Amino acid sequence: MKLRVGITGGIGSGKSTVCRLFAERGVPVYDCDAAARRLMTEDAALREAIRARFGAESYLQDGAPNRPYLAARVFGDAAERAALEALVHPAVAADFERWADRQEAPYVLLESAILYEAGLQERLDRVVAVLAPAALRLERAVRRDGADAEAIRRRMAAQADDDTLAARADYSIVNIREEELAADVAQLDQRFRHEAARV
Ligand code: ATP
After folding, report:
1. How remote is the CA of residue 141 from the centroid of ligand 1, in Å?
2. Left (φ > 0), alpha (ψ -120 to 50) or beta: where does 14 sit?
3. Could you tell me the distance, in angstroms and rounded to a whole number, from the CA of residue 112 to the centre of ligand 1?
4. 20: burial class by Cβ within 10 Å (0-12, 13-18, 19+)?
5. What is the rounded distance in angstroms from the CA atom of residue 19 to the CA atom of residue 8?
């Protein structure tokens, strides 16, 4: 059986950077954000379910999701957001399963900022949390997105904090110095290859 490993962490923690290092070592990586965007366009059953729940305006004439409309529908409305997520998350989880089965590698990675919120841990054998001090995460996110610090702070406040993630995950990577990251990834990669050979 193929080992399934999840990578999670807060905004600016370095999940994508860590996943890139695993990918460079030949590990296939599934990006849940990208998959959700793609499936909202390509998955006929998901499209139908979204139209049924949120109305015909959910899709544009050319078939692309009407993202501003959907964003406005769920903005500040927890119940509406939960309703949309209840449609999208299972579609992503099912797509991940199909994708994972197609991979030849001994183990695969799934990247998600909301891994636990989406219940994805149930489909994973191991979870790695990527951690970094909040001030550093804020600085990285502002630098990368050119976004307003207050908006990033609000997103950070809505996410699980590092202590919670570290307690739930099987492994943690502290991502402060990029030079040390590759060695941490190499060590975990070896461990997962070893474990994959035994399951
Ligand atoms: P998000 O959830 O916001 O997508 P993420 O956890 O995937 O974030 P990355 O995109 O990997 O985080 O990293 C955020 C930014 O910080 C990127 O511009 C990345 O290049 C930079 N970065 C990540 N780790 C380090 C590091 N150790 N040293 C310097 N810069 C870093």
Report:
1. 7
2. left
3. 14
4. middle
5. 10
For residues 137-157, average pLDDT: 91
**Between 80 and 199, residue with greater pLDDT:** 80
Q: What are the strands, taking DSSP E only, across the chain?
A: 3-9, 29-31, 107-111, 126-131, 171-174
In this predicted structure, what is the pLDDT of residue 104? 94
Cα distance between residue 135 and residue 114, in whole Å: 20
Q: Is the pLDDT of residue 86 over 70?
A: yes
Q: Please tell me if the CB atom of residue 13 comes closer than 6 angstroms to any atom of ligand 1.
A: yes
Averaged over 106-131, what is the pLDDT?
Answer: 96
Ligand 1 centre distance from Cα of residue 74 (Å): 27
Q: What distance lies between CA 64 and its chain's CA centroid?
A: 22
- Residue with the nearest Cα to atom 25 of ligand 1? 178
The predicted pLDDT at position 199 comes to 67
